[in-house]
Amino acid sequence: MYGVTSSHVLGVTALRNAIRMGWRSYTTSSSPSLPRAWTPTPYVTETVGGGWHTYDIFSRLLKERIVCLNGQVDETVSASIVAQLLFLEADNPERPINLYINTPGGSVTAGSHFPLYPAPYYARLTPLTSLPGLAVYDTMTYIQSPVTTICVGQAASMGSLLLCGGAPGKRYCLPHSSIMVHQPSGGYFGQASDIAIHAKEILRVRHQLNEIYRRHLTKEHSIDEIEKLMERDHFMGAKEALQLGIVDEILDRRVKWGEKGDGCGSEKGPSGS
């Protein structure tokens, strides 16, 4: 029979504490994957030919040629918006499409999340927050259907470019909308020569975005003026965005209901005071 000394008891206690603390650190460690918010989706039930048909709210709005851009503009959201625009053009290339925008802009740069990943993973992350949004912009200008853009809430970063890139005379915002413009952002970590290559690329994209703004703004601005405006985060209210030329009109209230199928009230787009 073996005797149990106080040192043995202390050793067992220390081991138990170490196991317990190790388990806690394991179960409470930060996950490398970023959490994604869940959005509750309402459903609409209609009577069709004596039967019932149920849509989620966004599919029902799509039937009315309304596309909603909500949340960050990443690859998934970009692919969804592009597909909806192409579908609506194929359905009727003459009728306008109404794009409602409420977005903080492009996806978050990976630089702030580097500690969550091992070095081999994040060493070559090269996020450019503008690239998914440019796919949406190019599709808007590519299709035959005119795209009416309406800002509800905020249109920041790439959201402001999409708002500005709507059909001429059909770019709107609500009275308390917030619009923000700035230069593109990105991050890279690696060899010096690769960093120089990606720095050159982000400067090329910045010049490209500035040219897009200059082409769509209703007010005349030189490229140097736009570069100065984009140097830092520049927040604007609805009136400031109207004065700058990002939008054509501020909508206060829908005056009348137009033809069925037009989400803005008429084939010519929204009208308000």
What does it look like?
By secondary structure, the chain is an alpha/beta fold. The chain contains 9 helices and 9 strands. It has helices spanning 6-27, 57-63, 75-91, 119-122, 131-142, 158-164, 192-216, 223-229, 238-244; strands spanning 43-48, 51-56, 66-70, 97-103, 147-156, 171-173, 178-181, 234-236, 249-250. The strands form 2 sheets. Strands 3, 4, 5, 6, 7, 8 and 9 form a 7-stranded mixed beta sheet that branches. Strands 1-2 form a two-stranded antiparallel ribbon. Helix 3 packs parallel to helix 5 and helix 5 (131-142) runs parallel beside helix 6 (158-164). The radius of gyration is 26 Å and the shape is globular. The termini are far apart.
Unreliable segments of 5+ consecutive residues: 21-34, 107-127, 265-269
What percent of residues adopt helix (DSSP H or I)? Answer: 25-40%
Largest sheet: 7 strands, mixed
**Can you write the helix and strand succession as a string?**
HEEHEHEHHEHEEHHEHE
What's the overall geometry? globular
Task: Give me the number of helical elements.
Answer: 9
Category from helices, strands and their pairing: alpha/beta
The rounded Rg comes to 26 Å
Integer average pLDDT: 77
Q: Tell how many strands the DSSP assignment holds.
A: 9
Distance between the ends: 94 Å
How much of the residues is beta strand, in percent?
Answer: 15-25%
Quaternary state of the chains: single chain
